[in-house]
Description:
Shape: globular
Distance between the termini: 34 Å
CATH architecture of the largest domain: 3-Layer(aba) Sandwich
Number of strands: 14
Radius of gyration: 21 Å
CATH topology of the largest domain: Rossmann fold
Number of domains: 2
Strand order of the largest sheet: 1-3-2-4-5-6-12-14
CATH superfamily of the largest domain: Response regulator
Largest sheet: 8 strands, mixed
Helix content: 40-55%
Number of helices: 17
Amino acid sequence: MNKSFRRTAVALAAAAALTTSIVGCASDGSEPAADPDAPTVMIQVPSLDNSYWADVIKGAEAAADELGINSDVQVYGQSIDTQLSQIQQAGSKGIDMAMVFAQDQASSPTLIRAATDQGVYITNVFSNQPWSTPREAEYDDHYVGYFLPDNVQDSYNMAASVLDQIGGEGEVLHITGTPGNTTSDERQLGVDRALAEFPDVELVGRESGGESRVDTQPVIEDLLTAHPDVKAVICHNDDSAIAVINALRERSMSEVKVGGIDAIEEFLDDMSAGGNAAATVAIHGAWFGGYNVVRLYDAFEGAEYSASESMMFQDSLTIDTGDAADEYQSVVYDADPLPFDWAAMSRAVSGDDWDTQLPLRPIDPDEYWGRIDQPAPDGYALPDDLGSELADGSIESVAGAHLEHAVSNPLGSAIGLTRAGESSFGQK
């Protein structure tokens, strides 16, 4: 077992030791000196079976520590009922803020309303009911934001790299995510866009892997039995991709290329070693967890953000060379502490000198939901402030401001070692 794999195993083992709630955990592992008068942020994740969530927790707790607030980790086991129950009890347990990953689109308005009705500030990540924006009046300015990577662009970038690496021809399999989840729909759209650009590639199998290596294992074994001549397997995320890589190793299929999303250490290790791993998208779990805590803290402290900043994409990076994989691990995973300045991100702390380090850009609701065939309902209009800002060109102006305020990006050295030489947003 190599050094990086051991680190991942330790992180997952530590996460698995969590019960349903861990309050005020210090990121250095020491016993925290919890301040009973400090606000508390809930960090709610769907599972501990995916190491990406361990990274999200790590960043969120680090940001909470730096900002002087308490943290409460909740795991809902991918159960919509459990997730809602945890949010419904938040106010009575002294929770002031909550970062959540809505299990599916349909449940997100109920989940968010359960928080905002209690005066709890909430951010939502990855899956949201179409045309339910954070600026709706019913949320009383407590739905702070919906944040995610641009899953269509990211999955396109990853898939295009994998298909290019197999010479643009041959049979390909696709392992999808959770049906009914916004992220799964978007990532499939990105893969389809890449496939359309490679006419000599044939998609011979597409099945859900449930976003985990456990659920993916029997699926990929059946697919490889049915299609033994595949040249590549494109996966919804890296956890599914690890199951694929394991199955390929067992069959001595060392030439098959595998793509994923999340840039977890196991996948990067395999890429560094010249294994099946061909490309993954770094969506920076630790940064993402920390950034959501910062935005919640700023809302709690009354810092000002525009309406068009309430729905935003984060920048990401397609890692598709061994050198880039090594550098990313060195910069992010080997760093102690993490290479992000959480206080600098906060407008409540840093004022006009805020620095997100990684850029974000606002989402155009028409384009965002339209691309997955979710047009606005008849008679629907965007909230006045959001609609007005978008009509005045806020997509471009806010995106420009966020590029200017992404000053100290610690990932520049890794970006330069990828095949594209730039991030999803074009940063070099």
